[in-house]
Design goal:
Layout: H1 7-71, H2 78-81, H3 83-97, E1 102-106, H4 119-129, E2 136-142, E3 145-155, H5 158-164, H6 172-178, E4 191-200, H7 202-253, H8 268-291
Antiparallel strand pairs: 1-4, 2-3, 3-4
């Protein structure tokens, strides 16, 4: 493959092959590491977001709702008594500052039509119902955009039943607001929906690819400088000494016996020069014999 190339070109070709292979491995490995880092970062954000929302819902159920029902038992006050209402309102407030983040309380049987699960959400909720999994994490496409999402099941607790049992049991104003077509028939303990946090990955992945491009550029620059340095070393320590030996040998072959094989190194090149020197001495002796 390299037999018709000079030593210099042969070494450069080998180094070029090493560069292509090492760059491919470095970029592939780097992309994997950065993508895993993106997943980890997205997971942390979704966990923090989800924990904040769950804590808010728990505080409403344990502290706010009992007090409201104690002091205003006949008043329909969803802002302080309905967890889903409060969570969706908080999520909209958060989205005002972080519009790319999405918090969904999705259900195939919601009171509020805005919470109706889409096809993927409904399939995920069914897997929660069958016990196939208790949490879903991964990448999902939503409206043509990739998100990292974490979905957890939402079961009907005692605090849900008073709104979602039957229209006859629910507060009349709530029935008036949402109607009687959907959002009822919940049974204690049943999986009725899912809390889902969507975190966009395009920005983080774009940053990861940018870092990878910088790395590839730096790696290529470093390898180019190394290639130039290796080339200079090969030229000065191998190519030029051999060229001087060849030039001296050609002059001697034309009768210029005063030429010397000059080598400053102490390696195979010097051994070659020494061999030529011995050959020159033998040749000189042979020529003297012929002259006599």
């Amino acid at each position: 493959m390299f037999k018709n190339l000079t030593i210099r070109k042969r070494i450069m070709a080998i180094l070029a092959i090493v560069y292509v292979i090492s760059l491919s491995l470095a970029v592939g490995g780097g992309y994997y590491v950065l993508r895993q880092d993106t997943i980890r970062e997205s997971l942390e954000k979704t966990e923090i977001f989800s924990a904040a929302m769950s804590s808010s819902a728990a505080y409403l159920g344990s502290s706010i709702r009992p007090k409201v029902l104690e002091y205003l038992p006949e008043t329909y006050f969803p802002e302080a008594t309905v967890g889903i209402f409060m969570l969706t309102t908080i999520a909209k407030t958060v989205q005002d500052q972080y519009p790319e983040y999405i918090y969904r309380i999705a259900s195939p049987n919601p009171l509020n039509p805005e919470n109706l699960a889409n096809e993927w959400e409904e399939q995920t909720i069914k897997k929660f119902e069958t016990g196939e999994m208790d949490t879903w994490r991964g990448f999902v496409d939503r409206d043509g955009k990739e998100y990292y999402a974490v979905a957890t099941p939402m079961s009907a607790g005692q605090n849900c039943i008073w709104c979602h049992d039957t229209p006859e049991v629910a507060h009349p104003k709530m029935v008036e607001q949402y109607g009687t077509r959907s959002g009822y028939g919940y049974t204690l303990g049943d999986v009725v929906g899912a809390r889902i946090v969507y975190v966009p990955t395009d920005v983080a992945l774009a940053q990861a690819k940018k870092k990878l491009a910088y790395f590839a550029g730096g790696f290529s620059l470093f390898f180019l400088l190394a290639l130039i340095a290796v080339d200079r070393i090969i030229v000065s320590s191998v190519v030029r000494p051999i060229e001087r030996i060849v030039a001296a040998a050609e002059d001697i072959s034309r009768g210029k016996m005063d030429r010397e094989f000059e080598v400053t190194s102490n390696d195979e090149i010097k051994a070659l020069a020494d061999a030529f020197k011995r050959m020159k001495v033998s040749l000189s002796k042979a020529m003297d014999i012929l002259r006599k």
